[in-house]
Design brief:
CATH architecture of the largest domain: 3-Layer(aba) Sandwich
Helix content: 25-40%
CATH superfamily of the largest domain: P-loop containing nucleotide triphosphate hydrolases
CATH topology of the largest domain: Rossmann fold
Low-confidence stretches: 266-272
Shape: globular
Radius of gyration: 19 Å
Number of domains: 2
Order of helices and strands: EHEEHEEEHHHEHEHEEHH
Bound molecules: adenosine-5'-triphosphate
Largest sheet: 6 strands, mixed
Amino acid sequence: MSQVPSAVLSCHNLGKSFGRDRRRDTVLADINLSLQQGDFVTILGQSGGGKSTLLKLMGGFLAPSSGSVSFHGQPLKGITPKIGMVFQEHSLYPWMTVEQNIGFGFKVRGELPQSYRNRVQNMIEQVELDDARKRYPHQLSGGMKQRVAIARSLVVKPDVLLLDEPFSALDVQLRRQLQAFLLAIWRETSTPMLLVTHNVEEAILLGQRLIVVGDRPGQIIAEVSTAAAEFRGRYHPKFLKLQRHLESVLEYNSATADLEYHPEETASAWQN
Ligand SMILES: Nc1ncnc2c1ncn2[C@@H]1O[C@H](COP(=O)(O)OP(=O)(O)OP(=O)(O)O)[C@@H](O)[C@H]1O
């Protein structure tokens, strides 16, 4: 699965330890995954299990202790604007307005404002922040800030977008609105997305493919397709069944924790 030629971003036997004791300090081990054009993959794991570390490795923010990360088939050597990243807590520049924050990626590349003004304006409209374009981050709600952060990453047309618990600081209502917003953007742009979350419902709802990373060391312990229409409705029986199954997988750190779960019963739904 890792060496898919058309993969935009992939990793092969990826591992990370933060100390000298390999056994005790290994956070991630032997992770293989690949992201292709149009993919939306969600990574589900316990808090502290290594999800952010995985995303930082995939984004070139951290160097692997073992294995490798490839971007368009070449070894990833560090951060690149072609890999967009949205963090858990909005990381906007407080002294910049909404439009300045969104245009920042062009500015650091040395582009003149007149060359990117329209692209920024279009993006502001897409994320429905037209009335707030001159406002500063402290004048925005949490949901608006996260929309600015997503817009800022997308406006430079990254080849892939990595999202680290982007909605976890928001209340349920806002979280649901932004989930729908992110899905709409993904459908419109086909930008491959890799989103990590500890929220089971979010992981099923958003992705086309769901990967569970187990605890210490973090390894892939389960993988399911969530592309079928049933998984877009949070009250569908198949959705609820998968949700319960994944909750036991997380709790017991084992793919076979839920003895009542029989994937073949839902196989037809998963093959879409
Ligand atoms: N730079 C670092 N140095 C040492 N240990 C680190 C470093 N970064 C992360 N860790 C450790 O790696 C483990 C995984 O951290 P990580 O932030 O990846 O988990 P997470 O699954 O994203 O957690 P959460 O859901 O709570 O954000 C933790 O035990 C953390 O203490």
